[in-house]
Specification:
mainly alpha; about 230 residues; 7 helices; single chain
């Protein structure tokens, strides 16, 4: 019974060692492929290493770098974050944060990049490349904010100008409506005056015609009454 127990322990240790060897072998295979420029193949090898040991920080870090090389930036950041959390060596952890900062900086996500660079420097204060990137990123963030402020001011000015133009158009429309109404009133007054004048002339004409007819008829002598 005791012999079986000892053999079981030995078998378990050998199996664990084989698994550990396997993920390291996949990492080495991925590294060879990566150095030859076969980044997509290297990604496959690193993924296999992560499948065999998902808590292997080197496998996650190398996978993140292979994704980064292929411009799969969102996936790369996810893997690098995982590698940074798993890594116990501060120098290697600093490398993960540095690469995260580079990705964010390339996408003009300067706030996120600055935080990543700061975290990298906390783990490796002597990394001059990270320090340079941090200062450059700060300057780029400031320029971005200035550009954004200018754009906001331009948008505000454009809106104010548009509102002013709209107001002027509305005022012009109202003035035109008033002028049209005034012209309509004047036209109606003129038409009424012409109608009244025509009616008066017509009546005068009729009166003259009646008088003319009356003058042309013979007058009858009026008989006097007898006494």
């Amino acid at each position: 019974m005791r012999t079986r127990y000892i053999l079981f322990i030995i078998f378990s240790l050998l199996f664990s060692h084989a698994v550990a060897q396997t993920d390291r072998q996949m990492i080495r295979q991925g590294n060879k492929q990566y150095r030859k420029g076969n980044v997509a193949e290297a990604e496959v090898s690193y993924r296999k290493a992560v499948e065999r040991n998902e808590r292997n920080p080197q496998a996650n870090y190398n996978l993140g770098n292979s994704l980064m090389a292929q411009r799969k930036d969102s996936l790369a950041i996810s893997q690098l974050e995982k590698a940074a959390k798993l890594e116990t060596n501060p120098l290697r952890r600093a490398q993960a944060y540095h690469n995260m900062g580079v990705i964010c900086q390339q996408h003009r996500m300067f706030g996120e990049a600055i935080e990543a660079y700061k975290e990298a420097l906390r783990n490796n204060p002597t990394d001059h490349e990270t320090r340079y990137n941090l200062e450059l990123c700060k300057r780029q963030q400031k320029e971005q904010q200035q550009d954004q402020n200018q754009q906001n001011q331009q948008n505000k000015d454009n809106k104010d100008n548009k509102d002013k133009q709209d107001q002027q158009k509305q005022e012009q429309k109202q003035d035109q409506q008033k002028q049209d109404q005034q012209q309509q009133k004047q036209q109606m007054s003129k038409e009424n005056a012409e109608q009244l004048l025509n009616a008066a002339m017509q009546e005068e004409k009729q009166t003259q015609e009646r008088m003319k007819k009356a003058q042309q008829q013979p007058q009858k002598r009026r008989l006097e009454k007898n006494w």
